[in-house]
Amino acid sequence: GESVGLHLPTLSVQEGDNSIINCAYSNSASDYFIWYKQESGKGPQFIIDIRSNMDKRQGQRVTVLLNKTVKHLSLQIAATQPGDSAVYFCAENTGFQKLVFGTGTRLLVSP
Amino acid sequence: DAMVIQNPRYQVTQFGKPVTLSCSQTLNHNVMYWYQQKSSQAPKLLFHYYDKDFNNEADTPDNFQSRRPNTSFCFLDIRSPGLGDAAMYLCATSRDTGAEAFFGQGTRLTVV
Question: What mean pLDDT do residues A25-52 have?
Fold first, then answer.
Protein backbone atom coordinates (compact mmCIF):
# COMPACT_ATOMS: atom_id res chain seq x y z
CA GLY A 1 0.00 0.00 0.00
CA GLU A 2 0.92 3.63 -0.13
CA SER A 3 2.32 5.30 2.91
CA VAL A 4 4.19 8.42 3.74
CA GLY A 5 5.68 8.60 7.20
CA LEU A 6 7.74 10.89 9.34
CA HIS A 7 10.57 9.90 11.64
CA LEU A 8 9.99 12.35 14.52
CA PRO A 9 6.63 13.37 15.93
CA THR A 10 7.98 16.45 17.79
CA LEU A 11 10.99 18.64 17.13
CA SER A 12 12.00 21.31 19.61
CA VAL A 13 14.46 24.01 18.58
CA GLN A 14 15.70 27.34 19.79
CA GLU A 15 14.85 30.52 17.92
CA GLY A 16 17.53 31.18 15.34
CA ASP A 17 18.52 27.55 14.93
CA ASN A 18 18.05 25.65 11.71
CA SER A 19 15.34 22.97 11.70
CA ILE A 20 15.28 19.78 9.70
CA ILE A 21 12.08 17.79 9.35
CA ASN A 22 12.26 14.40 7.67
CA CYS A 23 9.81 12.30 5.73
CA ALA A 24 9.95 8.81 4.25
CA TYR A 25 7.69 7.63 1.45
CA SER A 26 7.10 4.19 0.04
CA ASN A 27 5.56 4.71 -3.40
CA SER A 28 8.39 4.82 -5.90
CA ALA A 29 5.95 5.99 -8.58
CA SER A 30 5.26 9.25 -6.75
CA ASP A 31 6.40 12.18 -8.82
CA TYR A 32 5.46 15.23 -6.82
CA PHE A 33 5.88 16.14 -3.18
CA ILE A 34 4.62 19.03 -1.11
CA TRP A 35 5.40 20.30 2.35
CA TYR A 36 2.52 21.85 4.26
CA LYS A 37 2.44 23.84 7.49
CA GLN A 38 -0.64 23.57 9.67
CA GLU A 39 -1.29 25.87 12.58
CA SER A 40 -3.79 24.96 15.25
CA GLY A 41 -7.39 25.16 14.04
CA LYS A 42 -6.41 26.06 10.48
CA GLY A 43 -6.11 24.31 7.16
CA PRO A 44 -2.74 23.18 5.80
CA GLN A 45 -0.74 25.93 4.13
CA PHE A 46 1.58 25.29 1.21
CA ILE A 47 5.27 25.83 1.96
CA ILE A 48 7.25 24.36 -0.91
CA ASP A 49 7.04 21.58 -3.45
CA ILE A 50 9.43 19.47 -5.47
CA ARG A 51 9.08 17.20 -8.47
CA SER A 52 10.80 13.88 -8.80
CA ASN A 53 13.15 15.15 -11.52
CA MET A 54 14.80 17.43 -8.96
CA ASP A 55 16.77 16.71 -5.80
CA LYS A 56 16.75 20.15 -4.24
CA ARG A 57 14.57 23.21 -4.27
CA GLN A 58 14.92 26.41 -2.30
CA GLY A 59 12.44 28.98 -1.17
CA GLN A 60 12.54 31.80 1.28
CA ARG A 61 14.26 30.33 4.38
CA VAL A 62 13.16 26.84 3.35
CA THR A 63 14.85 24.11 1.36
CA VAL A 64 13.45 20.75 0.36
CA LEU A 65 15.75 17.85 -0.43
CA LEU A 66 14.60 14.73 -2.23
CA ASN A 67 16.53 11.47 -2.22
CA LYS A 68 14.73 9.07 -4.52
CA THR A 69 17.22 6.29 -3.91
CA VAL A 70 16.12 5.91 -0.30
CA LYS A 71 12.66 7.46 -0.77
CA HIS A 72 13.32 10.28 1.62
CA LEU A 73 12.66 13.99 1.65
CA SER A 74 13.44 16.67 4.15
CA LEU A 75 12.41 20.21 4.90
CA GLN A 76 15.07 22.57 6.17
CA ILE A 77 14.03 25.82 7.80
CA ALA A 78 16.78 28.36 8.28
CA ALA A 79 16.86 30.71 11.27
CA THR A 80 13.72 29.22 12.78
CA GLN A 81 11.32 31.74 14.29
CA PRO A 82 8.54 31.38 16.87
CA GLY A 83 6.05 31.88 14.03
CA ASP A 84 7.33 28.67 12.49
CA SER A 85 5.83 26.67 15.34
CA ALA A 86 3.23 24.39 13.78
CA VAL A 87 2.71 20.85 12.53
CA TYR A 88 4.47 20.08 9.28
CA PHE A 89 3.24 17.46 6.85
CA CYS A 90 4.82 16.06 3.78
CA ALA A 91 2.35 15.03 1.10
CA GLU A 92 2.88 12.77 -1.84
CA ASN A 93 1.14 12.84 -5.18
CA THR A 94 0.94 9.22 -6.13
CA GLY A 95 -0.04 9.79 -9.72
CA PHE A 96 -3.55 8.43 -9.16
CA GLN A 97 -5.01 11.86 -8.47
CA LYS A 98 -4.31 11.30 -4.80
CA LEU A 99 -2.51 13.56 -2.40
CA VAL A 100 -1.48 11.38 0.52
CA PHE A 101 -0.27 12.94 3.75
CA GLY A 102 2.41 11.73 6.10
CA THR A 103 2.05 11.48 9.87
CA GLY A 104 3.20 15.01 10.69
CA THR A 105 5.90 16.57 12.84
CA ARG A 106 5.17 19.18 15.46
CA LEU A 107 7.82 21.91 15.47
CA LEU A 108 8.19 23.82 18.72
CA VAL A 109 10.33 26.96 18.65
CA SER A 110 11.35 28.47 21.95
CA PRO A 111 12.64 32.04 22.29
CA ASP B 1 -8.76 36.93 -0.06
CA ALA B 2 -9.94 33.44 0.73
CA MET B 3 -9.86 31.20 -2.32
CA VAL B 4 -11.25 28.03 -0.78
CA ILE B 5 -14.10 28.75 1.59
CA GLN B 6 -15.64 26.25 3.92
CA ASN B 7 -18.89 26.79 5.74
CA PRO B 8 -19.57 26.64 8.54
CA ARG B 9 -16.29 26.78 10.48
CA TYR B 10 -17.90 24.92 13.36
CA GLN B 11 -20.81 22.50 13.11
CA VAL B 12 -22.56 20.67 15.91
CA THR B 13 -24.89 17.86 14.92
CA GLN B 14 -26.83 15.21 16.74
CA PHE B 15 -25.94 11.56 16.58
CA GLY B 16 -27.64 10.08 13.53
CA LYS B 17 -28.87 13.40 12.14
CA PRO B 18 -27.76 14.07 8.54
CA VAL B 19 -25.38 16.96 8.12
CA THR B 20 -23.92 18.73 5.09
CA LEU B 21 -20.66 20.63 4.94
CA SER B 22 -19.97 22.97 2.07
CA CYS B 23 -16.94 24.14 0.16
CA SER B 24 -16.61 26.75 -2.53
CA GLN B 25 -13.66 27.91 -4.57
CA THR B 26 -12.84 30.97 -6.63
CA LEU B 27 -9.85 29.38 -8.38
CA ASN B 28 -11.76 27.52 -11.09
CA HIS B 29 -9.75 24.41 -10.29
CA ASN B 30 -10.59 21.06 -11.79
CA VAL B 31 -9.97 18.97 -8.70
CA MET B 32 -11.73 19.22 -5.36
CA TYR B 33 -10.79 17.02 -2.41
CA TRP B 34 -12.41 16.20 0.92
CA TYR B 35 -10.21 15.15 3.81
CA GLN B 36 -11.02 14.05 7.34
CA GLN B 37 -8.53 15.04 10.03
CA LYS B 38 -8.78 13.79 13.58
CA SER B 39 -6.84 15.27 16.44
CA SER B 40 -3.05 14.95 16.10
CA GLN B 41 -3.41 12.94 12.89
CA ALA B 42 -2.70 13.58 9.25
CA PRO B 43 -5.52 14.51 6.88
CA LYS B 44 -7.08 11.39 5.41
CA LEU B 45 -8.46 11.55 1.91
CA LEU B 46 -12.16 10.60 1.71
CA PHE B 47 -12.81 11.26 -1.98
CA HIS B 48 -12.23 13.76 -4.71
CA TYR B 49 -13.71 15.07 -7.93
CA TYR B 50 -11.85 15.62 -11.14
CA ASP B 51 -14.33 17.84 -12.90
CA LYS B 52 -17.53 15.80 -12.58
CA ASP B 53 -15.78 12.48 -12.13
CA PHE B 54 -16.15 11.21 -8.60
CA ASN B 55 -13.32 9.15 -7.08
CA ASN B 56 -14.04 7.42 -3.80
CA GLU B 57 -11.32 6.03 -1.57
CA ALA B 58 -11.73 2.33 -0.93
CA ASP B 59 -11.89 2.71 2.83
CA THR B 60 -14.30 5.65 2.95
CA PRO B 61 -17.50 4.54 4.73
CA ASP B 62 -20.77 4.59 2.78
CA ASN B 63 -22.01 7.03 5.40
CA PHE B 64 -20.00 9.71 3.60
CA GLN B 65 -21.25 11.06 0.29
CA SER B 66 -20.34 14.01 -1.86
CA ARG B 67 -21.89 16.22 -4.50
CA ARG B 68 -20.36 18.67 -6.90
CA PRO B 69 -23.14 20.55 -8.70
CA ASN B 70 -20.74 22.86 -10.51
CA THR B 71 -17.06 23.77 -10.68
CA SER B 72 -17.21 26.13 -7.73
CA PHE B 73 -19.07 24.12 -5.12
CA CYS B 74 -18.61 20.76 -3.47
CA PHE B 75 -20.57 19.27 -0.57
CA LEU B 76 -19.82 16.59 1.97
CA ASP B 77 -22.90 14.77 3.24
CA ILE B 78 -22.74 12.58 6.32
CA ARG B 79 -25.93 10.57 6.32
CA SER B 80 -25.90 9.30 9.90
CA PRO B 81 -23.09 10.88 11.91
CA GLY B 82 -21.61 8.77 14.66
CA LEU B 83 -19.44 9.90 17.54
CA GLY B 84 -16.42 8.63 15.65
CA ASP B 85 -17.11 11.07 12.82
CA ALA B 86 -16.24 14.06 14.98
CA ALA B 87 -13.25 15.61 13.25
CA MET B 88 -11.99 18.51 11.20
CA TYR B 89 -13.13 18.23 7.60
CA LEU B 90 -10.87 19.88 5.07
CA CYS B 91 -11.68 20.81 1.51
CA ALA B 92 -8.89 21.39 -0.99
CA THR B 93 -8.64 22.24 -4.66
CA SER B 94 -5.96 21.89 -7.28
CA ARG B 95 -5.67 22.93 -10.88
CA ASP B 96 -4.79 19.41 -11.88
CA THR B 97 -3.32 16.28 -10.43
CA GLY B 98 0.33 16.78 -9.70
CA ALA B 99 -0.27 20.40 -8.79
CA GLU B 100 -0.35 22.29 -5.54
CA ALA B 101 -3.50 21.78 -3.48
CA PHE B 102 -5.04 24.79 -1.76
CA PHE B 103 -6.89 24.15 1.46
CA GLY B 104 -9.79 25.82 3.13
CA GLN B 105 -9.79 26.58 6.84
CA GLY B 106 -11.82 23.48 7.59
CA THR B 107 -15.07 22.71 9.35
CA ARG B 108 -14.83 21.27 12.82
CA LEU B 109 -17.66 18.82 13.32
CA THR B 110 -18.89 17.88 16.76
CA VAL B 111 -21.37 15.03 17.20
CA VAL B 112 -23.48 15.05 20.34
Answer: 92
